[in-house]
Design a protein that fits this description.
heterodimer, A: alpha+beta, OB fold (Dihydrolipoamide Acetyltransferase, E2P), 2 domains, 6-stranded mixed sheet, 5-stranded antiparallel sheet, 8 helices, 22% helix, B: mainly alpha, MetI-like fold, two-stranded antiparallel sheet
């Protein structure tokens, strides 16, 4: 596959864009400053975005992750220019684009429903943006061929979109959005309409295409697996606000708050009181009267009442009497490669444990078994309030 | 068992029977009657003599002089030309006004759309004659438009703007009467249009005009063509509007046909004009069939 050189295809510069908008090493691709969006007015007003601020770096695979209604799609539409923000600043490579109309933004979108033009063939669809930018005919021809090759659709160049499967339409939509070589590519849940296997294959491919084209991708999804597996960085959103921005590891291992911890993956939350001085490791007493050592890196000085957070796969099971605490298996979900169990340890909620089925002679658990539960003090984290 | 196919074919024909009968009785037979009358001799006071004659068609193009020689006469050709021209102008006016209206309705929230469609069709509930008379009050001498000019003294009492009894008045009448027939099919097309395609157009560097001409127009083409036909065909044969608003001096084909059957009592000539009208309609329907074949790929969608 040919590598698309950013220099080979000139980035779509329109008359309105200052020529200073060039790719430079340190400058962020997108800067959001206190972006707000309110729909409606008065009592029925809905705040879709409440002061969103963060940066997206150049050449980054950036994901906006959150449940439906969290504002991620509104934010994407504001970047594309389909929505006008109620307040704040959106900078694209330094230029404030809030008042730049959609068709003058060097940004392209892959729509959730693909939105291919039904009256144009695959290659006409891909060529569409380049035609509007008044590129020379031979350049359009080569770019279209290159893009169709990139998404492995060269055999379908003369088909109409209605003659393609969902996955194929998806590829054409991607090629069409990449063809003008935008400064930023926006992807609005593009994989949600595909079946599981295809979705997983497309994840790898999208990631690869992003690396090859060196275009900044902004990807919207509600699927945490998608976000974790593809992104360089993730912004987790909820109720119109950004909850945390970080790498997949930071988001998963060190969630900033209870929402992030609960939305990305499974989590155990244990209410407790700190009984030791605040430090890297603290001792906590749970509501159930259990004394646990925990990672206190995020505890505030003087804080007493805290929520402890623990991923199910960080909990180990041991024979009865050999763990941090003894418990009883309450439910078991067999997942094939792992078992998800709820183990009662006398706290308000049972502990969720994910045990990998890696060893051939691993003991089979059954409801009612008494087991030892081992908490690693480094994995049991005090959550930021 | 062996004759099952014939049986099936027979049954299919029988099942189609009622439909074929209706088409035959109500469409084919009248056209045949009309066609045959156009080749007969006129009786002096209406009706026909059953003698073959091409006179009706000769009369369309030639004038019979006193010495029985024929002279090319443009009179009826002018009327045909005026009919086609006015019908085309009315069609274009309907399109220019109707398309934005249809777009507006299609962009309303789902629940309000039906209300707007209802409002569009309300004029159909009143008599066409009455609605056409209303235009005389608006366009006519001392009408709604002229009165302000008189008050301000811009128009002397003996002067008139001359809006009535003109091609302009006929066009206004035709446009007004047939505009719902333009709005409805275009609305039906636009309603099915996925608005994210318009966003996709803007996203791919199309100005508003480019989005309109490259995406919205091609995707609503079936509706536009259907609307144009639905306006053009009845406009071509209209007789109320040219009669009332044209004042009888700007004849159109419809008025001419009506005149031949009522006042002039020349049934073969009236039939011949009707055949000419039919020929125009057939030509336009064939153009439509051709155009809709071109956009067939869209209907699969």
């Amino acid at each position: 596959m040919t590598r698309i050189q950013p220099a080979a295809t000139v980035t779509p510069l329109h008359p309105a864009a200052p020529t200073a908008v060039e790719r430079s090493g340190g400058e962020p691709a997108v800067v959001l400053e206190n972006v707000c969006k309110t729909y409606g007015r008065g009592a029925s007003a809905v705040e879709a975005l409440r002061g969103v601020s963060f940066d997206i770096r150049d050449n980054e695979f950036f994901t906006l992750l959150g449940p439906s209604g969290c504002g991620k799609t509104t934010l994407l539409r504001a970047l594309a220019g389909f929505e006008h923000v109620s307040g704040g600043v959106i900078r694209l490579f330094g230029q404030d684009i809030v008042d730049v109309p959609t068709h003058k933004r060097p940004v392209n979108t892959v729509f959730q429903s693909y939105s291919l033009f039904p009256h144009m063939t695959v290659s006409e669809n891909v060529a569409y943006g380049l035609r509007r930018l008044r590129r020379p005919a031979d350049e359009i021809r080569t770019t279209v061929a290159e893009m169709l090759q990139l998404v492995k659709m060269e055999r379908f160049a003369d088909r109409l979109p209605t003659q393609l499967s969902g996955g194929q339409q998806q590829r054409v939509a991607l090629a069409r959005a990449l063809a003008p070589h935008p400064k930023v590519l926006l992807l609005d849940e593009p994989l949600s309409a595909l079946d599981l296997k295809l979705r997983q294959a497309m994840r790898q491919e999208l990631k690869q295409i992003q690396a090859e084209t060196a275009i900044t991708f902004i990807f919207v999804t509600h699927d945490q697996d998608e976000a974790l597996s593809m992104s360089d960085r993730i912004a987790v959103m909820s109720e119109g606000q950004v909850q945390q921005v970080g790498t997949p590891t930071e988001i998963y291992e060190h969630p900033a708050n209870r929402f992030v911890a609960g939305f990305v993956g499974d989590a155990n939350f244990i209410e407790a009181e700190i009984t030791s001085p605040i430090g890297a490791e603290v001792t906590c007493r749970t509501k159930g009267g259990l004394d646990l050592r925990a990672n206190g890196a995020k505890a505030r000085p003087g804080q007493r009442s805290v929520t402890l957070f623990l991923r199910p796969e960080k909990v180990r099971l041991a024979p009865k009497g050999q763990g941090t605490v003894d418990g009883q298996v309450e439910t078991i979900q067999y997942l094939g490669n792992a078992c998800l169990m709820e183990i009662g340890i006398g706290e308000a909620a049972p502990v969720l444990v994910s045990e990998r089925m890696a060893d051939v002679d691993q003991p089979r658990r059954a409801v009612g078994d008494r087991v030892g539960v081992v908490f690693d003090p480094r994995a049991l984290q005090v959550l930021e309030e | 068992m062996a004759n099952l196919p014939e049986n099936a074919a027979l049954r299919r024909t029988l099942a189609l029977g009622p439909a074929l009968a209706i088409i035959g009785i109500f469409m084919l037979i009248p056209v045949i009657i009309m066609a045959s009358y156009s080749f007969l001799e006129a009786k002096s006071f209406g009706g026909v003599n059953w003698v073959f004659s091409g006179d009706a068609y000769v009369q369309l193009f030639y004038e019979r002089m006193l010495d029985d020689s024929l002279r090319l006469s443009p009179g009826y050709l002018i009327i045909i030309g005026r009919s086609v021209a006015l019908a085309l102008v009315a069609m274009v006016c309907c399109l220019l006004v109707g398309f934005p209206v249809a777009w507006f309705i299609a962009r309303q929230p789902l629940r309000q759309r039906n209300m707007w469609i209802l409002l569009i069709t309300i004029p159909f509930w009143t008599n066409q004659l009455v609605r056409t008379f209303a235009w005389i009050i608006i366009l006519g001498r001392n009408g709604v438009i002229e009165v302000p000019f008189r008050w301000t003294g811009l128009l002397a009492p003996e002067q008139t703007l001359g809006l009535m009894y003109s091609n302009f008045a006929i066009t206004v009448g035709l446009t007004y009467t047939f505009i719902p027939l333009m709005v409805l099919p275009i609305y039906a097309s636009l309603e099915k249009l996925d608005f994210s395609l318009v966003e996709a157009g803007a996203d791919l560097y199309s100005s508003r005009w480019e989005t309109f001409s490259n995406i919205i127009i091609p995707l609503s083409k079936p509706g536009i063509i259907a609307g144009c036909l639905l306006v053009f065909i009845p406009s071509l044969g209209a007789f109320i509007q040219p009669d009332l608003l044209g004042g009888g001096k700007n004849l159109m084909l419809g008025t001419l046909v009506q005149f031949q059957f009522s006042t002039a009592r020349n049934w073969p000539f009236g039939s011949a004009i009707a055949m000419i009208l039919l020929a125009f309609v057939v030509v336009f329907l064939m153009l439509y069939a051709r155009a809709s074949r071109g956009s067939k790929s869209l209907e699969v969608h």
